[in-house]
Amino acid sequence: MKYLSIAVSLLLLSACSMPLLALAQQESAPDGPPARTVEGPPPGFGHGPGTPGLPPFLHGIDLSEAQQDKVFAATYAQAPLLREQEKIAFKAHAQLRALAGSSAYDDAKASALANTAAQAMAKISLQQARLEQQLLAVLTPEQRQQAQQWHDSRQVPRDPRRLP
């Protein structure tokens, strides 16, 4: 059972760290786009069409200037926490890869590194959920309905033959 939990932790870690690896490769590529500056959108937002810096579910929703200011403040307030957790997850994953390839492999240390990375990714997910709730509270009921329609259009229908 212990090995199963370690295997599940490693699988979760590798799945969660893929975006971090892509980001690291993108920032280190000499001919790639320049690294994001302070003026750019915070991590996780601003990709694709729409207003830069807005979460995707707010694209296409007409926000008042006061709402834009609140969205900006909430979005940028979370950026330092997200960056710190991304660094923790990336460092733990790099150490885990190095440990896995070394002759001094220690299962307990590998498990601790996997847990550290997974906890950082969990904190990132939780912070993004909190931010979404903060942003939804800024919206009017009509705007919330538009955001809900966006979410509904993004949902993948479940296959009734598969277990939940």
From TrEMBL:
Entry keyword set: Signal
Q: Give start-end positions of Basic and acidic residues composition bias.
A: 151-164
Q: Where do the segments described as Disordered lie?
A: 27-54, 141-164
Which InterPro entries does the entry mention? Cpx_auxiliary_protein, Metal_resist
Residues making up the signal peptide according to the UniProt record: 1-24
What top-level branch of life does the organism fall under? Bacteria
Mind telling me what this protein is named?
Periplasmic heavy metal sensor
